[in-house]
Amino acid sequence: MTASTNELPTDATSHEGPETVPGLDRKDRILALLAGDLRALPIAAGLIVLGLFFASQSAPFLTSRNLSNLIVQSVVTGIIALGLIFVLLLGEIDLSVAATSGATAVFMAKLVVDQGLSVWLAVGGGVLAGLLIGAVVGFWITRFDVPSFVVTLGAGLILGGVQLLLLPATGRYNLLGTGVDKIADTYIVGVGSWLVWLVAVASLAALRYSSYRRKLTHGLASSLVRDVLLPVAMLGVLTAVLVWVLNGYRGIPMPVIVFAVLLSVAGFFVTETAFGVHLYAVGGSGEAALRAGINVPRVKITSFALAGALAAIAGIIAASRILGVSVSSGGGVGGGTLLLDSIAAAVIGGVSLFGGRGRVSGALLGALIIGTVSNGLNLMGVDTQVKYIVTGSLLVLAVTLDCYIQRQTSTGGR
Amino acid sequence: MTDEGGTSAVATQPLLEFRSISKSFGGVRALEGVSICLRAGEVVGLVGDNGAGKSTLVKIMAGNLAPDSGEFLFEGTPVTLREPADAGALGIQTVYQDLALCDNLDAVQNLFLGRELKGSWLSGGRVRRAESEMRARDVLRKLRLDKLSLTRSVGQMSGGQRQNIAIARAILWNPRVILLDEPTAALSLSTALKVGELIRTLADQGHGVLVISHDIHNFVMTVTDRIEVLRLGRNVASYVSKEANPEQIVNAMVGGKEGVNSSR
Predict the structure, then answer these.
(1) How does pLDDT run across A9-44, given as a tens digit for each residue?
(2) CATH of B11-91+175-264 given 3.40.50.300, 3.90.1150.10, 2.60.40.1570, 3.30.420.150
(3) Alpha-carbon dihedral of residues A27, A32, A33, A39, nearest 10 degrees?
(4) CB-CB contact of A26 with A1 (8 Å)
(5) Which of A109, B58, B61, B114 has its CA 20 to 30 A from that of A210?
(6) Do A285 and B100 touch (CB under 8 A)?
(7) How many CB atoms lie within 10 A of CB B242?
């Protein structure tokens, strides 16, 4: 216990006094850390191990071209998982996200191809449709107090039907040459890519530094190295490597920039705003949140709406990447593997199915793990069957770990 | 604001007064013409057996329930509370028996839950965390709870610490009246005594405190100034704590002869 406190911030040592909870021994503390601040550590380690394994099995794995591909492949899953995190933090689930991504992508394609709308209007329409679908689903769940599991299961099926209705007799809208195809096919190279990198790092630095300044002006302990320089340097180095790798192929793909922006904005809202606190509060104890005066239905409807909008963005990126929409957009009717992959990504990324626990970065890490497994096994020439088995096993492992942490930490302090 | 009435012990005008409040749930009469008053700087104990109507009374004071009839006066003015926020606006804060804390949030987040200090729209509505932490620290210091960690999740804290966080949350908004529903039910004797000291501190600082408790011998007798006894939804007795003995009170609670001492 004493050994670990040496590296902890000064404000953490102050509560090591006589009021320390009895029975909170070393194992409990490690579990508590795993449930909180260090939750990303085993996931990141797992990602590195997977990467090393596939690199040893297949020479092309570590090429810029393949890594660029892998990342773009992970973006669609990652964005859907990001939306799911809002809902999962509340302790709810949305089984209609993949279907939403499919139906809204087809809707967007219909606007472009049949109605001749400009790409940006159509994209806006698609995202708005996703937002509305999520809002309606959220409204239904809160207004009639029905389990989100069932409502979204039904909504997924409904949206699957809508998707088929929107499609023409050929069952496909071709988006090649419409301008939608440009979204996924735009790359930022050279100086531009480094400018993007600089903006990202500077944003984090500004955010961290302003927190640090405010803590100091209010007489609270804060360290420039620990709270500002270290996180900024870590993000800076990681993203620099990423930009360098991507520049080795064609540059930073637009979908990656979209995902990065969405991750940052979502991260800001979840960690820095009252809405974020309320998400965790509702997921942690709905009753306590209600009595604290939080408008719980509004928080829920907002979260489902955000999940819908993000699913729509993912659907549009997928459509742009594969140059069209069809029956199988959004994972096919019911969401198929796209739905399962997105849920798996969030859960593998450390977001609890019980609500109230998890981070936005989980969407990134989880999606990268799913993407790496899929990409690596493909390169090794492994059949789809095996891919399913491996991904499924990872999911079961992640959920088991989640349940274990939940049980251990929730009995810790009472 | 809180030291209205100066040092002259207890102010004459009650902060909060109930005049023959009644409340029924369907056919069940939970409260029948109950009257009670609470002055600044005093601790009033509300005792009674299960079903006496204590919780109903507190829920009405907290704005969670509306009375069927009777008068609710706050500083001599009749008021109607439609929702808990109305009670909060008057300066009435409630600490519930189950504490209503979010275990996955830290102390600061719990203290400000639902009332976060938000930055301007320019900052994206960012929570003013540093300022919140500072104010939390000030409140905890005022309650002599400096040792409590502000940044640890509440779920990892002991029962007494959690109780203290819940009380600090009520104090944060500098309320006139604090309602405590069974603050010691889940605590060990020594921790309960500490919570008792804390409640005395609150009264000394000018708050009016109403506390529901079953622990007559160890807690109510030592912590309160006055004791109101409810039985089956009616006022049955009131005592000045110094002049009462536990047997009398328990007797009044259970309604006379049977089970005088052992009925707790």
Answers:
(1) 333 333 333 444 444 567 767 776 666 667 778 888
(2) 3.40.50.300
(3) 120
(4) yes
(5) B114
(6) yes
(7) 9
Strand, helix or coil for residue A15: coil
Q: Is the Cβ–Cβ distance between A263 and A364 less than 8 Å?
A: yes
Both tokens assigned to B142: 């005022």
How many CB pairs lie under 8 A apart between chains A and B?
A: 127
> Could you give the residue range(s) of every CATH 3.40.50.300 domain in chain B?
11-91+175-264
Whether residue A89 is predicted with pLDDT greater than 70 in this model: the reply is yes
Kindly determine whether residue B156 and residue A32, on different chains, have CB atoms separated by under 8 Å: yes
Q: Reply yes or no on whether the pLDDT at B259 is more than 70.
A: no
Give me the pLDDT at residue A35, please. 65
What CATH number was assigned to the domain covering residues A39-189+250-409? 1.10.3470
Instruction: State ipTM.
Output: 0.84
Q: How far away is chain B from the Cα of A245, in angstroms, using its nearest Cα?
A: 33
Q: With beta carbons under 8 A apart, name residues in chain B contacting A412.
A: 155-156
Mean pLDDT is highest, among A405-414, B2-11, B149-158, for: B149-158
Residues of A in contact with B103 (CB under 8 A): 284-285, 410, 413
pTM beyond cutoff 0.90: no
Who among A273, A357, A412 is closest to B124 (CB)? A273
* Structure token pair of residue B138: 């000030």
Strand ranges in B68-213 using DSSP code E only, listed in sequence order: 69-74, 77-78, 92-95, 177-181, 208-212
Strands A187-188 and A324-326: unpaired
Cβ atoms within 10 A of the Cβ of A170, count? 8
Q: Which of A175-179, A293-297, A344-348, B7-11 is predicted least confidently?
A: B7-11
Contact (CB<8Å) B133/A218: yes
Residues of chain A contacting B157 with CB distance shorter than 8 Å:
21, 413
- B159-196 pLDDT, tens digit per residue, is 889 988 999 998 898 899 999 999 888 788 888 888 89
CB contact under 8 A, A293 and B88: yes
Full strand arrangement of the beta sheet holding B43-47: B92-95, B177-181, B208-212, B43-47, B226-231, B234-240
DSSP category for residue A17: S
Provide the shortest C-alpha distance from residue A83 to chain B (in Å): 20
Nearest chain B residue to A281 by CA: give it.
B102
Are the Cβ atoms of B126 and A18 closer than 8 angstroms? no
**Sequence ranges of the domains in chain A:** 39-189+250-409
A23 touching chain B per CB within 8 A:
no
User: What token pair was written down for B175?
Assistant: 């309320």
Summarised one tens digit per residue, pLDDT across range A360-396 is 999 999 999 999 999 999 999 988 888 889 888 988 9
Check CB contact under 8 Å for B113 and A289: yes
Question: A residues 247-286 near B, CB within 8 Å?
Answer: 268-269, 272-275, 277-278, 280-281, 283-285
Q: Count CB atoms within 10 A of the CB of residue A299.
A: 22
